Amino acid sequence: MKCAVLFLALALAVSVPAHARESLGVYERWGAFHDAEIPRCYAISQPVNGNRKGRWHPFAAIGFWPEKGVRGQVHFRISREKAPDSQITLSIGVRRFTLIAGGADAWAPDKRTDAAIIAAIRSGNSMSVQTVSKSGAPFADVYALRGAASAIDAAALGCAKLGGIYDR
């Protein structure tokens, strides 16, 4: 478990300058970070079945951007390139959400769906993002949700301290 978090921290260190990111805590397979340069805060995890051989590192993240008034925006980077016309579905327990996609990334279609996904994450044990790869093979990235609620809360609180995205 700690190896997964260490790998996640290393992946973030490669993609974001070290001085720009501050850890807000590690909660099981989820971490919470504050990025002062943007400024933003986010909770992030990698799939339990992570594909480390691909061109990019898959992740699930929930972001907060206080200057833009954005809170709780769900974002996924999938582990493989998806087929151009394939649908991406997020499953959490019995709940299913259709995501919108651009290349290797997927998001909720609107703020209401972001909120519904976060509510499902808070009460779920695992989630999976399913689609069809460019080669035509179906695949899923699976995430453990233990610790997710704490990481989301830490990210939200980290950005609330920046100037009150909740004061509006």
Topology (SSEs and partners):
Elements: H1 2-15, E1 21-27, E2 30-35, E3 40-45, E4 59-65, E5 70-77, E6 88-92, E7 95-102, E8 105-107, H2 111-123, E9 126-132, E10 138-144, H3 148-160
Antiparallel strand pairs: 1-2, 2-3, 3-4, 4-5, 5-8, 6-7, 6-9, 7-8, 9-10
CATH fold call: Immunoglobulin-like
Based on CA atoms alone, the radius of gyration comes out at: 15 Å
Summed up, the domain count is 1
Structural class: alpha+beta
Helix run count: 3
Query: What's the CATH H-level superfamily name?
Result: Invasion associated locus B (IalB) protein
Give the spatial strand order of the biggest sheet: 1-2-3-4-5-8-7-6-9-10
Summarize the helix and strand pattern as letters: HEEEEEEEEHEEH
Beta strand % = 35-45%
Instruction: Return residue spans where pLDDT drops below 50 for at least 5 consecutive residues.
Output: 1-19, 164-168
Biggest sheet descriptor? 10 strands, antiparallel
Percent helix range: 10-25%
The global form is globular
Description:
The protein is globular. It is an alpha+beta fold. It has helices at 2-15, 111-123, 148-160; strands spanning 21-27, 30-35, 40-45, 59-65, 70-77, 88-92, 95-102, 105-107, 126-132, 138-144. A hairpin with a 4-residue loop joins strand 4 (59-65) and strand 5. Residues 1-19 and 164-168 have low confidence and may be disordered. The chain has a single domain, classed as Invasion associated locus B (IalB) protein (Immunoglobulin-like). It has a ten-stranded antiparallel β-sheet with strand order 1-2-3-4-5-8-7-6-9-10, sandwiched between helices.
